[in-house]
Structures are given as structure tokens and as C-alpha cells.
Amino acid sequence: MSVQEQYQEIQEELKAASEKGGWTTQPDVIAVTKYVTIDRAKEAYQAGVRHFGENRVEGFLEKKEALPDDVTMHFIGPLQSRKVKEVINEVTYYHALDRLKIAKEIDKRVDHTVKCFVQVNVSGESSKHGLEIEEVKEFIEALADYEHIEVIGLMTMAPYTDDEAYIKQLFEQLRKQRDEIQSLNLSHAPCTELSMGMSNDYQIAAEAGASYVRIGTKLVGKEE
Ligand SMILES: *Cc1c(COP(=O)(O)O)cnc(C)c1O
Q1: C-alpha span between 30 and 196 (Å, rounded)
Q2: Does the C-beta of 198 come closer than 6 Å to ligand 1?
Q3: CB 3.0–4.6 Å: which of 99, 109, 141, 170 could bond 85 by disulfide?
Q4: Is 29 exposed, middle or buried (0-12, 13-18, 19+ CB in 10 A)?
Q5: 166 vs 17, 35, 155, 163, 214, CA distance in Å?
Q6: How far apart are CA 48 and CA 67, in angstroms?
Q7: Per residue in 56-76, pLDDT tens?
Q8: Which regions form coiled coils (predicted)?
């Protein structure tokens, strides 16, 4: 299938899943292009995709340079402190904030306000990045010190499993945590958004109320 056909199918599935969950809007699709060429990313643009995600500095800068100016670029992976300055001025959304050290470095280097998602390891799997759910509130409160960081929401990666009920429960836990932070009315942390759902679980995420799904393999494929 072409990227265009995949995109259409995904949009329809997201619409149905969002309605099933009782939501009046559906998530925006971020095309994760880390596995594919610039040409494939441009194909996604032609199909109507305007949000693009990359998890490494080099790939991010290369795709940003090649794509038209009206795309929104999302940095979706962990950033190393020494790499922050190479990329941060090109980043509109950062999806993987989980350390104060990185927040401090971003704040020092950046020329605009970065819309950040705090990454949460809801399942508690040791292999994943992100904070434990119990640590989220204190971490977000501490981010008030960094004027260029705006916490717009929470992000998670579910484990790779076909246990849909389990994944759904993880996404709902993240949503409840989002609601709790939002209700604190912190001026640096409106925390209205949820970044969750990938190729394997975007329909579950949409049903659970995702605002952004990050889709690579299923949308643009995976080149070896
Ligand atoms: C690679 C990646 C994705 C997309 O993964 P697919 O399974 O190919 O859809 C989404 N989010 C993050 C953080 C990633 O690193």
C-alpha cells in the first residue's frame, strides 16, 4: 500500500476508535520517519501529513531540512546533554523529557519556548525511559524553574504485547495522571495533551483519549 492509502486507513481507524471512546476529536498523526529515507518522508507530506517525528539528532535535522516549511517537527527520543544545542532550536515539540539536567540544558540553549511532554514509564518495565508515575507531579513542579519549558502533556510507550486490555489500562492510567496535573493549574504546565500510541497500539490509544499518535512502521514502512 502507498503511504497515502495507509494514511487514509489509519485516519478512519482513529476516527472509529475515538468515537468508541466517546471523544469528539481524534488524535493528530505524527509520522515517525526514523526508519525511512527522505523521499519516503516527502511521500508522507504529499499524502497530507504535517507532523513529523524523529528520535535522533542527525535524522531529525536531515528531515527538517528536506521537508517544506509548514511541517511541525517533533523530537521523540531521549536527548543527551551535549547534543541539546545542536538541535533544540529546530524543535517545536519534545516528547521525552524525564530529567531536570536536560531541562536545564534546553532552557540555557534554546531561543523559544519548547512544548514538552514528560515521558512516563507507566508499565514500570526496566528497559524503558521515563519517570515512574509516582514521580511525575514533583518533577513537573520542579520544571517551573525553566522559563523556556512548557509542559503541554504526558507521553508514554506501551510494552510490545498483544494483551490489549493491559495496554488500554496503561493508557488510561496516563490519562488520569494527565487530568491530575492539569487540575493543578500550573502556569508552566497546562498539561492538556497525551502522546501515546504507535503502530502496534494506536487504536487503543485513540480510544483512551490520545491527542497525538506516533506512527512509523504502519504508516511509512521500515527500510532495513
Ligand atoms: C520508533 C518510535 C515510534 C514509532 O514506532 P512504530 O512502531 O514504527 O510505529 C513511536 N514513538 C517513539 C518514541 C519511537 O521511538
Answers
A1: 11
A2: yes
A3: 109
A4: buried
A5: 17, 27, 17, 5, 19
A6: 12
A7: 999 999 999 999 999 999 999
A8: none
Grid cell 504502519 — which residue? 218
CATH architecture of 3-220: Alpha-Beta Barrel (3.20)
Report field, pTM of the whole predicted structure over 0.90: yes
Largest CA distance in the chain: 48
Cβ atoms of 222 and 33 closer than 8 Å = no
From atom 12 of ligand 1, which residue's Cα is the shortest distance away? Answer: 76
Q: In this predicted model, what pLDDT tens digit does every residue of 28-56 receive, in sequence order?
A: 999 999 999 999 999 999 999 999 999 99
Report CA torsion sign: 138, 100, 199, 9: positive
Domain boundaries, given as residue ranges, for the chain: 3-220
How far apart (Å, rounded) are the C-alpha atoms in residues 115 and 13?
27
Mark residue 182 as left, alpha or beta (left: phi above 0; alpha: psi -120 to 50; beta: remaining): alpha
